[in-house]
Design goal:
Length: about 400
C-alpha cells in the first residue's frame, strides 16, 4: 500500500481525538500511549532527559526548511490526523512515576511519621503528575492549578478517566494564577464546561461542597462553558510541587517569594514539603537546540539567546510528526528567568521554609549528544543530595523546602 493510500486508510479509520490516534497506533507499538510505563527518572522538557533511547531511529534533521512538509503552528491547526500537542508533550517531557518516587522519598526523609496523601501540583498543565499520584493509592487526593484552561480540560477528558471510577472525586483542578490562588476557579468534569466562582481554599478549609449556582455565559468568549458557584473543602497538603522548571515563569523576586508563601500556606501543620526543579550549567546560558527522535515523532527543545543581565531566555518546544509529515512548531513556548540555586534557597527561606535541600545530577553533555540516543543516558543518573556541586555542561536539580 502506498504512502497516500495508507494515510487515507488511517484517516478513514479515525474519529477525531487523540485516544483514537493512540489506539490505532498501538498496533504499531506506538509511543503515543499514556498507559505506557515511564522511566523511573524525572524527565523535564529538555530532550536530554528523556528515556526510551532504544526507540530512537536513524537521525533526522529538524531544521527550519520545510522539505515540502506542512507546518502547524499549534494545536488549533491540528487535523483529525494529528495527535494533540498535550499528548506529545506528556510523552516527550514527563516521567510522573520517577517524580512521585522522589517526592515520597523526600517526604519520608524530611517529614516522616506518615505517608503523604494530599498533593498539590502548581503550574500543573495537563496535571499528569496529579493523576498518577491518584493512581498510586486510593486514599490520595490532588489539587492542580494552572493558567491554561485548555490544558486543564484536556486533563479532564484524557488523564482523569485513566485514574478509575473515583478519579474525578479525588482531584480538584483550578484555573488561575499561582500568585493569586484564592481567585482561581474550579474546573469540573462536565464535558466542555467550566465551573467557576470558586476560590482555591488554602489550609483553612471551606465549609461546604456542592453546586450553589449555575449560570450560562452563552454569548461570551466562554460560551462553551458554564460557570457554577460552589464551595469546596480541601485537605491540607502534604506535598506541593512546581515541576518542569515552572518557577522560571515568574520573573520578579517578589513574585517568587509571594508564590512560595502561597505554597507554604497550604502545607499541613503536621509537616509538609514544597518541591520544585531547576536546570542549569554552561549549556543553559546560550542558544541551544536539542532533539530526540521517537518512532513516530521528533521532539525539539530550542533555547533562544540567553540574556545575562535579566537571566532570561525563551524556550520553544517543537514536534515533527513523521507519518503526517507535519511540523508542530512552537507547540509550547515559555519566557523564563533562569533562577540560580542560592536565589531559590533565599526566597524559600524568606517565605517561611525551615530548611532547603538540593538534590542534583549531572546531565549528559549537550555538545556530545545534541541529537542522538545518548540522551537516554540521563535515565541512569540518580539525584544525590549536595551542599556543593562543581559546574557542569548541564545539570538538573530538585529543590526541597521543608515547612
Ligand atoms: C513548563 S509548563 C509545566 C507543565 C507541567 N507542570 C509539567 O510538569 O510538565 C509551565 C506551566 O505553567 C503554567 N503557568 C505559567 N505561569 C503561570 C502562573 N502564573 N500561574 C499558573 N500557571 C502558570 C503554564 O500554563 C504551563 O502549563
Amino acid at each position: 500500500m502506498g504512502k497516500k493510500e495508507k494515510k487515507q486508510k488511517h484517516q478513514r479509520n479515525q474519529h477525531r481525538g487523540v485516544l483514537n490516534y493512540c489506539q490505532d497506533e498501538e498496533d504499531d507499538n506506538s509511543v503515543f500511549k499514556l498507559s505506557q510505563p515511564y522511566s523511573s527518572s524525572s524527565s523535564p522538557p529538555r530532550v536530554s532527559l528523556s528515556d526510551d533511547a532504544k526507540e530512537l531511529e536513524e537521525e533526522e534533521d529538524f531544521d527550519d526548511d520545510n522539505n515540502g512538509e506542512k507546518e502547524a503552528v499549534n494545536d488549533e491547526t491540528a487535523s483529525d490526523d494529528m495527535p494533540s500537542k498535550f499528548l506529545l508533550y506528556q510523552h516527550s517531557v514527563q516521567s510522573p512515576k520517577g517524580d512521585i518516587s522522589y517526592l515520597q522519598k523526600f517526604f519520608l526523609m524530611y517529614v516522616g511519621g506518615r505517608m503523604p496523601l494530599h498533593f498539590q501540583e502548581d503550574f500543573c498543565g495537563t496535571a499528569l503528575l496529579s493523576t498518577e499520584w491518584l493512581r498510586s493509592d486510593p486514599r490520595r487526593t490532588a489539587v492542580g492549578l494552572d493558567l491554561d484552561l485548555e490544558a486543564l480540560q484536556w486533563c479532564i477528558e484524557n488523564n482523569i478517566p485513566k485514574v478509575g471510577a473515583d478519579g474525578s472525586s479525588r482531584i480538584s483542578l483550578f484555573h488561575g494564577n499561582v500568585l493569586q490562588p484564592l481567585q482561581s476557579k474550579l474546573v469540573i468534569s462536565i464535558p466542555q464546561e467550566l465551573i467557576s466562582n470558586i476560590t482555591l481554599a488554602d489550609n483553612t478549609q471551606l465549609q461546604e461542597s456542592g453546586i450553589l449556582e449555575a449560570k450560562s455565559q452563552a454569548g461570551s468568549a466562554d460560551q462553551d462553558y458554564k460557570c457554577i458557584k460552589r464551595n469546596v473543602s480541601l485537605p491540607a497538603r502534604d506535598i506541593v510541587c512546581a515541576f518542569n522548571y515552572s518557577s522560571c515563569c515568574l520573573h520578579k523576586r517578589a513574585d517568587l517569594v509571594l508564590y512560595f508563601r502561597h505554597a507554604h500556606s497550604v502545607l499541613s501543620a503536621k509537616g509538609g514539603i514544597f518541591v520544585m526543579d531547576l536546570y542549569g550549567g554552561a549549556s543553559s546560558e546560550h542558544k541551544l537546540r536539542l532533539q530526540r527522535r521517537f518512532p513516530n515523532f521528533t521532539y525539539v527543545w530550542e533555547q533562544a539567546d540567553f540574556d545575562i543581565i535579566e537571566r532570561k531566555t525563551r524556550i520553544s518546544l517543537h514536534f515533527h510528526l513523521k507519518k503526517q509529515q507535519r511540523k508542530l512548531r512552537h507547540a509550547f513556548s515559555y519566557s523564563w528567568r533562569l533562577w540560580t540555586l542560592p536565589e531559590i534557597r533565599d526566597c524559600l527561606e524568606e517565605a517561611g521554609f525551615q530548611s532547603v535541600h538540593f538534590w542534583l545530577r549531572q546531565m549528559p553533555d549537550t555538545t556530545e549528544f545534541p541529537k542522538t540516543e545518548g540522551f537516554g543516558m540521563g535515565r541512569d543518573l540518580r539525584y544525590e543530595e549536595a551542599t556543593s556541586f562543581p559546574q557542569q555542561d548541564a545539570w538538573n536539580a530538585y529543590i526541597v523546602g521543608v515547612a
